[in-house]
Design goal:
By secondary structure, this protein is an alpha/beta fold. It has two domains: 2-158, Rossmann fold (3-Layer(aba) Sandwich), CATH 3.40.50.620; 184-302, Beta Barrel (Elongation Factor Tu (Ef-tu), domain 3). It is 30% helix and 27% strand. Helix 6 (133-143) links the parallel strand 5 (114-120) and strand 6. Helix 5 (100-109) crosses helix 6 (133-143) and helix 7 (161-169) packs antiparallel against helix 8 (173-180).
């Protein structure tokens, strides 16, 4: 997969016509996948115009959402789904000021040779977001590309990244997985914690989560984890560990049947189901009993 990045003005044009879709593509969810499949049907290389960071970081930083995945994961998934090229735009102040017709002329036409363009039905683009689907269609008529606006539903629920972010943030990771087409995943480096889990027989790996990423709502989760080539079931706690009087929220995973040192290495966590709310126990024995129960139900759910 070809990745066009840096200053779009010096990109080499694609060698031939393409079918283009535009969006943040955060999550590369079922709706995104459906758009990609639809574009493939036109027999042209599929190109995704996306952004390194969310445009709201420049347009309205206070409204910028946390993202479902880092850009590297987004690119890996787009390649997995057969995308021929990604135009990865650094949405900065200069790009924000690009008028709608200039974006079409300079990027879609001059660099990507678009012949088909697919966008969401509420798509806005150009300076001050003055461009909409109607304008894009008008400009497409002038430049020789057709425009499809799409609205994707899954079991009557809109498949949008904003919906999935909300589900994850509320702890509904099973519902989020149905819209993503895969479990919600966090990837991070394992960093030292207070090692209290080790003292009660349930050592945990504390995950350093990248800045600006969505984290599941507080609670205890059944998960599948991966460390290098090895996979383990996991019980994951998200929260501030109230039994120990914690104040800072953490993501800590107890890997079932793992023995070893994870510090400094990368750990993947796929959240499958929320087992229970995080709670403060009257004592350590009650906490140990609850964790043992969490392990039992994780095995019941994930070993079947």
């Amino acid at each position: 997969m070809r990745v066009l990045e840096g200053d779009y003005q010096i990109w080499d044009p694609l060698p031939g016509p393409s079918a283009v879709t535009i969006g943040v593509y955060d999550g590369v969810h079922l709706g995104h996948q459906q758009v990609l499949r639809a574009l493939e049907a036109f027999g042209l290389p599929v190109v995704v115009v996306t952004f390194r960071g969310h445009p709201e970081l420049v347009i309205d930083p206070d409204a910028a959402p946390s993202l479902l995945m880092p850009v590297e994961r987004r690119l890996d998934l787009l390649e997995e789904y057969g995308v021929a090229a990604v135009a990865l735009i650094d949405f900065d102040e200069d790009f924000r000021r690009l008028a709608a017709d200039e974006f079409v002329d300079r990027v879609l036409v001059a660099k990507l040779q678009a012949r088909r363009v697919a966008v969401g039905s509420g798509f806005r683009f150009g300076y001050r977001q003055l461009g909409d689907v109607a304008l894009l269609r008008k400009l497409g008529g002038q430049h020789g590309f057709a425009v499809d606006d799409v609205a994707i539903l899954e079991e009557g629920v809109p498949v949008r990244s904003t919906v999935i972010r909300a589900l994850v943030g509320e702890g509904h990771v099973d519902a989020a997985a149905r819209l993503l087409g895969r479990p919600f995943r966090l990837v991070g480096r394992v960093v030292p914690g207070d090692q209290r889990g080790r003292t009660i027989g349930y050592p945990t790996a504390n995950l350093e989560v990248g800045e600006g990423l969505v984290v599941p709502g507080s609670g205890v989760y059944a998960a599948r984890t991966r460390h290098g080539e090895d996979a383990y079931l996991g019980v994951v706690n998200v929260g501030n560990r109230p039994t120990f009087g914690g104040e800072e929220s953490v993501v800590e995973a107890h890997l079932l049947d793992y023995r070893g040192d994870l510090y400094g290495s990368e750990l993947e966590i796929d959240f499958v189901a929320r087992l229970r709310a995080e709670q403060k126990f009257p004592g350590i024995e009650e906490l140990i009993e609850a964790i043992a129960n969490d392990v039992h139900w994780t095995r019941q759910l994930l070993e079947a």
